[in-house]
Design brief:
It is built from 16 helices and 5 strands. By secondary structure, the chain is an alpha/beta fold. Bound molecules: zinc ion.
Length: about 350
């Protein structure tokens, strides 16, 4: 009775792929008829770039792909699943290493030269290509300049701005963007139906609109940390806890680096609320042009300064500075900003009240 619809069959997408990357998948299928030798895939973290590469690797190494997708049961698929495919090479930064060393690239190139083709493609995935150090980049460049036949390089990065132009110019580029907010919300509701809408939105905001990171945040019950972060700041402000007490609690988290995202997102909301209030005021006074009062300008400057301080603190943290000290300093900066200007919520409220009284 149910006839198989061949048009929808041909548009089927790999099972592990997130829905917002389906258009890119269709684009890839068109490319794969006349495959180039090197592709640079870039996009923010947490939107499914890695899943996309997985699908590409699987379909390229599958012996009998169906509609461009891996069949899942041929020899190629089995070898890949067992992580034993002789023609797949996955290069990434070793754990607790700052960069991808030249030895790793040389080792890869030697293996590529030694092994003979099994008839199909050799696929090389270099994950986090921005972590290649200078000599590693140079070693890779030579290989990209003189590619062997049936070799497919897939380079991925979350920070395309850090790549040298020489690498970019030798690859075909595919860029990936986060889904629209409503698509991300819908997907998260399907994945975590028990979670309420406000928390889903907060998870997305704190994770820069990246649904996979937001889901991880929800699943790891990070909202408890979020609450602890807010409580810590309240206790700090009221003098019930010292800076070092609050910081030592944050440092117990599994990924304390999240603190910087919390601070950053908060400062973004603060900046927004200052400008929003002044726009609302301008509209109320039927003034076409809106401008900031001296007080608002000061607030804005403070929050922007704090935003910069947050980014700098995160850099210092990643640069192996004393973690405790970095967070304590940031807390002190936060307290200072609080003293100069009222917290943005209360400023927001007092402005609204003034507006309604006048
Ligand atoms: Zn297969």
């Amino acid at each position: 009775m149910n006839q198989v619809d061949s048009s929808s069959m041909s548009q089927a997408n790999p099972p592990g792929l997130v829905p917002w990357l389906n258009p890119q998948w269709s684009q890839w299928l068109q490319l794969s008829d006349r495959l180039g030798h090197a592709y640079l895939l870039s996009g923010p973290k947490g939107i499914g770039l890695e899943q996309f590469v997985d699908a590409v690797v699987q379909s390229t190494l599958c012996v009998q792909p169906v509609n461009g997708q891996a069949c899942g049961h041929c020899q190629g698929c089995h070898l890949l699943k067992g992580q034993q495919h002789p023609d797949f090479y996955h290069l990434k930064r070793l754990e607790d290493k700052k960069d991808i060393a030249v030895d790793q690239v040389r080792g890869l190139i030697n293996k590529l030269n030694e092994t003979s083709h099994q008839g199909g493609y050799k696929v090389i995935w270099i994950e986090g290509v921005e972590f290649l150090n200078q000599s590693a980049f140079n070693a890779l460049l030579k290989t990209l300049e003189e590619p062997a036949a049936h070799t497919l390089f897939l380079l991925t990065t979350h920070e395309i701005g850090r790549l040298p132009a020489t690498i970019k110019s030798r690859c075909q580029q595919l860029s990936f963007t986060p889904p629209a907010l409503e698509d991300a919300i819908e997907w998260l509701h399907q994945k975590a139906p028990q979670v309420d809408g406000a928390l889903v939105k907060r998870a997305l905001r704190l994770n820069w609109g990246a649904p996979l990171d937001a889901l991880q945040w929800i699943e790891a019950a990070k909202f408890e940390e979020d609450t602890q972060w807010k409580d810590g700041l309240k206790q700090l402000q009221s003098g019930r806890k010292s800076v070092s007490q609050v910081v030592s609690e944050w440092l117990k988290w599994s990924t304390p680096i999240t603190v910087f995202d919390y601070f950053y997102q908060w400062s973004v909301s603060a900046v927004r609320s200052v400008t929003y209030v002044s726009v609302a005021q301008a509209e109320k006074e039927s003034d076409q042009a809106w401008s900031l009062s001296a007080e608002q300008t000061l607030q804005l400057q403070n929050w922007l300064r704090f935003q910069q301080a947050t980014l700098q603190a995160k850099e210092n943290w990643l640069g192996n500075a004393n973690k405790e000290l970095v967070l304590e300093t940031l807390c002190l900066e936060w307290l200072e900003v609080q003293q100069i200007a009222e917290p943005f919520q209360s400023v927001f409220q007092s402005r609204i009240q003034k507006g309604s009284l006048s």
